[in-house]
Amino acid sequence: LNYTNACMLQYNHLLGIGNYTENIGFKVCGTKLFTTNRNHPDGGGGKKRFEVSIKKCINIMDVIDLHARERRNMNQRDLSISWNQMKKLAMEDKHERKKFSTKQNQDRFQPFLDDTISSIKSSASVRNQAANLAAICFNLSKLHKLCGWKIGDESWEALERAIIKISDKFKAKQASNVAWALANVNRSTIDVWYKL
Fold first, then answer.
1. What whole-number distance in Å separates Cα of residue 57 and Cα of residue 149?
2. Long-range contacts made by residues 149-155, C-beta under 8 angstroms, separation at least 24?
3. pTM here?
4. Which residues of 41-68 are buried (b: 16+ CB within 10 A; e: fewer)?
């Protein structure tokens, strides 16, 4: 396989070789074609690193398993998209909602929640943090409403501190989603509501 022939390979074929999302590249060595992509989960950071894989998850435990495999490589946006996918699956299927009620599954959700809170605590300068934070709050609250799944006060307090810190960066829709999320789980911290 020479360089010219390699150039003629279709994008979709390259996409099928591995879980890559954009800016597909390649190099040729002898008769083998190797894909090279900075957005591979083990490589650099593209903004759609895991989005395709997350959205292909067909049940909640698929999302949790993906996080368990790739937690060291997931960024705040990936975590936000993951929560959104779990909310979507829970809304569509009552059997998925029941997965939040078992102690065994709740123990498996905890590392995912812990990583999400850690990401919020340590990323004041993350691009699009306001959008991520609003989405995470909304989806956590929605899962609480749908599934009766409650997260601890410590986690909500960490989210509230982040909300106060970046409240001026929220767009109107994001602020509205945060307000709904907090009201839905009966959070009444005065400083947070004042900032919103």
1. 20
2. 149/100, 149/101, 149/106, 149/109, 150/185, 151/113, 155/113, 155/117
3. 0.72
4. beeeebebbbbebbeebeebbbbbebbe
Contact status, residue 136 vs residue 120, Cβ threshold 8 Å: yes
Name the amino acid, one letter, at 5.
N
Sequential pLDDT tens for the chain (196 residues): 444 444 444 434 434 444 433 344 444 444 434 333 333 333 334 457 689 999 999 999 999 999 999 999 999 999 999 999 999 999 999 999 888 877 777 788 889 999 999 999 886 565 688 999 999 999 999 999 988 888 889 999 999 999 999 989 999 999 999 999 999 999 988 888 888 8
